[in-house]
Design goal:
3 helices, three-stranded parallel beta sheet, alpha/beta, globular, 93 residues, 37% helix
Length: 93
């Protein structure tokens, strides 16, 4: 839910009384640093969950984004995971 939809989703959740520190916006490792800072400023967690999926984004770019967020002071709002949901992602079954 990258792009403007992340900010819109945060608006809706906050209007409904959801505390931002209880929200993770996933798939942000496809985004750019400026937008990630805008999302992080809202107090939610940044989900980097496609690590290793080079067809979506190169891991070197993900690392740059992660470093940018740490340097901006958002290290406590970063969640790393690995979104493995299909058998073809596995090298062995």
């Amino acid at each position: 839910m990258g792009g403007a939809e992340a900010l819109r989703a945060i608006d809706i959740l906050q209007e409904e009384g959801v505390e931002p520190q209880r929200v993770i916006i996933d798939h942000l490792d496809h985004d750019h640093a400026e937008h990630l800072r805008m999302v992080a400023e809202r107090g939610v967690f940044l989900g980097f969950d496609c690590i290793g999926k080079s067809r979506y984004q190169d891991d070197a770019i993900r690392l740059e984004l992660l470093c940018a967020m740490v340097e901006a002071g958002y290290e406590d709002q970063i969640v790393l995971s690995h979104d493995i949901s299909k058998l073809d992602y596995l090298s062995a079954y």
